[in-house]
Amino acid sequence: MRFSRIAVLAVLLASQAGCSESQTPEQRAQATCEDEHDAFWISQDFVKRALKAPSTAEFPATMRNDGIRSNYLGDCVHEIWAYVDSQNSYGAMIRTTYYAKVQNRKGTDNWSLLDLKL
Asked: Which residues of the chain have pLDDT under 70?
């Protein structure tokens, strides 16, 4: 029996799409807990709260930019080193590097800020 490349590709994509559905709730919770991208986006929310002009904040679009690092410490705790461009109290745009340590409450969308240095 011969299959077309399109049929094989369709079967592979369908099987991969079902992988996340076959995960147990514990496996999904662990994946969320360890996701560095979620930690990166959440860190931005905490940084905005500390800025003089949060509405002017401009963060890197992805974690692939220079100067951005993350470190997973275990127990749903992440360290993020990144930067934000925002206006200071004089209205000038400045780049500020930051360090954020955030923790996910496993199995939820709740995150806590453990440390923030701007």
From this structure: 1-21
